[in-house]
Write a structure and sequence with these properties.
Elements (H helix, E strand, L loop, with lengths): L2 E5 L3 H14 L3 E5 L2 H9 L5 E5 L5 E3 L2 E3 L1 H10 L8 E5 L6 H9 L3 E4 L5 H12 L1
Parallel strand pairs: 1-2, 1-3, 3-6, 6-7
Antiparallel strand pairs: 4-5
Helix pairs in contact: 3-4
Keywords: Phosphoprotein
Protein name: CheY chemotaxis protein or a CheY-like REC (Receiver) domain
Organism: Candidatus Thermokryptus mobilis
Amino acid sequence: MPHILVVEDDKLTAQLFEIILKRRGKFDVTVTDDGDKIMEILNSGNVDLIIMDVSLSGTIVNGSQVDGIKLSKMIKENERTAKIPIILATAHAMRGDAERFLEESKADDYISKPITDHNFLIEKIKRFLK
């Protein structure tokens, strides 16, 4: 069963992702915004895809506060984790923002929050897991 890491600091949104991914996608899901736990999970080699909140507010990695853009870039620039697909989740869906976020973060794709089309999310994830 594919393992999805959801990095989200809003508890309600995190719960929604977990429910959708487990029930609709039948995925194994870990949800956290704790920087140490994120790195521990990534270093385990047991992550097939990451859904990353763009606007993380309290995530600390290696002593520095990071948002989803910085954290995605760190993951993509590490040769051990570079191949893990990252889908950015953003409520900032202004024209041009998504493209700029993808370029800065080196992420693979993005989705807009709130998630209203659950099947669209599941299909997007499955395309990356093929």
